[in-house]
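Continuing from the previous page of notes. For each protein in this section, the sequence appears first, followed by its structure tokens. Read the first protein now.
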Amino acid sequence: MSDQTTEPKVNKEQPGPTELRDPLLQQEAKKAAIWIGMAAALALIVLLAQPLLLIVGGLIVAVMLDGGTRLLGKVLPIARGFRLALVLLVVAAFFVGVVFFANLQIVQQWAKLQIIVAQQIDLLGIQAADAGIMATPGDLKELGGRIFASLGQLTAAVTSVLGAVTSFVLMCVLGIFIAMEPKLYERGMAWMIPMGQRTFFYETMSQIGYTMRRLLAGRLLGMVIEGFGTWFLLALGNVQMAALLGLITGLLAFLPNIGAIISGALILTVGFSTGYETGLYALGVYLAVQIVDGNIIVPMVAKKTVDLAPALVLAAQLLFGALFGIIGLALADPIIAVIKIALERGARRSADEAQDKDAPKTRSMLMRF
């Protein structure tokens, strides 16, 4: 009998569709995990919208305090902690002065302003009815109430006076802690990023900080110029409540586009409540202040920071205001600026990497010729 050698059987079976060893299943599982992760992240953002906005607001406060500390360092070569303390003292003195001034004049003027606005709405409704437009004063008041009620349905508590004050205090406290040691928190965020990405992260954060400091500095400059300019010019023309209108204009100057519309409506309402001549003068003051801000301050800030399209800023303000209330409305512009910087950095990095990959191919093709 001849020896017969038995050949080993080759296992030709392939992994089933339920086994993770299948490359196709692994690829699809990764795609599904990405989509599930994105959906979970969006759900968390919606659920945690208010605390996330408070954290972003704290970062904005920290950037402003850090900018003041750096600016003071060019004049006083002292330790950073002392410079930060001086900045905090100046800010506290400013708020104390505003509160003291408000107790003397602005509280009474605010009550009078509400009466004037209500009277002008009633007058507008009567004039509309005389012109054949079916709109009563009650309809206009209801429309205004719906517009303001639509801002911040998800964060109604924040839009109240007590909620706004509490949120502002929390943002200030968080901003102070971050401004004390910003590098500590930056290193903590970088620790969660892979080593190969940390250099890009540090460079991006440095550019964001540089841009935000100048953006907020320009915004504060615009607030001061618009506030004092409106107050001075309105007082020069004997327009009533000039101090209150100047304060409101200065505060609303932090909100591009929407802030100017609201302050302009209040200025014209108060001006025309006295007479047409005063109303036209108030209109001239408003236009003069906005022309200075739009042709001098805004281009100067955009040149040294990031140029944002007005339509993009307005759309972001409407979206953030409708979703997150007054805090979202105030933080829409800085958030869009940060997103734009990050996207531009990422696109530039991708272009550089693609250029580096194409460079060896280009050199080899040239060597053939």
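Done with the first. The second protein uses the same format. Note its length before scrolling.
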Amino acid sequence: MKMDFSGIKMNSARNRINLVTREKMDTPGKAPVPEWNHPEFAELVGRIKAARANGRPVILSMGAHVIKNGLSRYLIALMKKGFVTHISSNGAGSIHDFELCWLGGTSEDVPTAIEDGSFGMWEETCSWMNEALSAGAAEGWGYGESLARYMDKHPERFPYVDDCVLYQAYKLGVPATYHIALGTDIIHQHPNVDFGAIGQTSGVDFHTMCESVSQLDRGVFLNFGSGVIGPEVFLKALSIARNLGYPTFNITTANFDLVDLGDYRAAISYDDPLYYYRPRKNIVNRPTGMGGKGWHFTVDHKISLPNLYARLMEV
């Protein structure tokens, strides 16, 4: 039997305690760069610079914790400087970005909220995002574009667009695509949720992602902390590109995460749980099997992204 969502109780997020706020965001060029010296990081930075010098794309895929770690301004700066040509994330990435844009804060205390069923039941975030996606689906827009256009239409609701990754990407003409698993995000809990609109807009974004991936020969794909959606979307997009005859073999890839893979280029058996860690297979090793090179860096985002920005800014 299909459950009726009409009786779900929503609350305003305006007085919510947020674990992440704009005041905690780091600003490139002002925040100190944490010390981190990896012997192969310089080679990756060089490949990114070479890719952009030759007009090749650099796609940055990420999980939501990049936003939750207060690193939005680094992403925006990398786009403005021309080093990142496509941003890709999951539904949670869009939600935390959206909340910071209207509320100035995001990330509730989940352990206490789940006890009474109030977790994620935030009226403004859920209703506005669903409104935006329904309107965008009617126009044939993608998920990221739908949210950005909604912000343009209601500027009084969004005072912090300067720090919004998806909005700044839209203004810069940089694709910001969001790849959604249905039932995983708080906006899927709202009575006005339209799963058809969510699927349609995210489907448009997947086509956009495939176009970017099809141009990746001599380009770079970076993944920050997305353990499932990012690697799976990338592998399918790459398969489509190669199926259609695009030369996508000389690719540089890098995965940044807290998982320690040891010798991640060595063969690994089915008995090892790390075999099933998708970024190892879908980002680092398989896509570069016919050319290019892949890396896995075991490092916190608050260390890796500031260092990436700082190294790319060096002449």
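What the second structure shows: DSSP finds twelve helices and eight strands in the chain. The chain has a mean pLDDT of 96. We return to this in next week's lecture.
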